[in-house]
Amino acid sequence: SEAATIAVLPWVHERDVVRWESLLGRESHQEYADEVAQMATHLTGAFPRDTVNVLLAHLMVDGAQVGGGERELHLGAVYAVKPQALPGNANYIALGHVHRPQAIAAPSPARYAGSLLQLDFGERGQEKSVVLIEAHPGRPAHVETVPLNAGRRLRDLEGTLAELQTLATDAGDDYLRVRVHVDGPSPGLTRQVREVLPNALEVVPIYPDRERTESDQRLRTLSPDQLLAEYHQATYGSAVPAPVLDLFRRLADGVAQEEVDRQAELLEFVEGLPVGPLR
């Protein structure tokens, strides 16, 4: 049997690496990439020669193809590690963060195994898999991907209510995002769709261009309370219960106050900065 040495690098948040001075100099992305690459190199520097050496790293690699369900704030190439900067002394580098299964052209065999299931509609149609590796000391790992067939798929369906009734026979047990073509606002539309397609997770009404424009303009004139009332009436066919409306107002007031406080803190910070040109 083989012995293994495993180094683990959890997600490193940008704020734990990037300094204020670097933000002013617009070099924060390179600083982050260099620091995280050095962390990986430091962790793998103690790898013995007589064990199977694996790096488990939760990070974004520059050039990786995202799956659609990842958190957008952590995806841009500005805070990504160059693949060539990953360690070259590992039998295998197991990467996490990106949901789309894919190999990475790094100095050591490296791969994102990806998510086990389609996590949101940005991942619909993706084929999921797990990674099986065979490794021995001193040699790159042999990597094999094993397709996954379990789990319920995500699909888009679109049409009128009548057309959706026809499509329902082929929907199976897939989770659905449904776009419904209607002539105008239709109270209870979500309920009507779910009577035909019980697995509809999201129902989006599609109006004719003219009416959609008029509807959008009208919605912009409504207060948050009025928007909630219209949504509740259209979705559930009834007025908003008083406890729900009270909770909604308290949450909305809390969010508004947090934004006011944040702006005040930012203004106070900026006013405390020394006067002079930024270089």
Describe this structure in words.
- By secondary structure, the chain is α/β, with parallel strands linked by helices.
- 33% of the residues lie in helices and 20% in strands.
- It is built from 7 helices and 10 strands.
- The chain has helices spanning 20-24, 28-44, 161-167, 189-196, 209-219, 224-236, 242-271; strands at 4-9, 52-58, 92-96, 102-104, 110-112, 129-134, 142-147, 154-159, 175-181, 200-206.
- The strands form 3 sheets. Strands 1-2-3-5-4 form a 5-stranded mixed sheet, with helices on one face. Strands 8-9-10 form a 3-stranded parallel sheet, with helices on one face.
SSE order and pairing:
Blueprint: E1 4-9, H1 20-24, H2 28-44, E2 52-58, E3 92-96, E4 102-104, E5 110-112, E6 129-134, E7 142-147, E8 154-159, H3 161-167, E9 175-181, H4 189-196, E10 200-206, H5 209-219, H6 224-236, H7 242-271
Parallel strand pairs: 1-2, 2-3, 3-5, 8-9, 9-10
Antiparallel strand pairs: 4-5, 6-7
Rounded Rg = 26 Å
Number of strands: 10
| Helix percentage range | 25-40%
3D shape = flat
| Strand residue percentage | 15-25%
The helix/strand order is EHHEEEEEEEHEHEHHH
Q: Which regions are unreliable across 5 or more consecutive residues at pLDDT < 50?
A: 72-77, 275-279
Average pLDDT score: 83
Main sheet: strands, sense, barrel = 5 strands, mixed
Query: Which structural category fits the helices and strands?
Result: alpha/beta
The neighbouring-strand order within the major sheet is 1-2-3-5-4
Distance between the termini: 58 Å
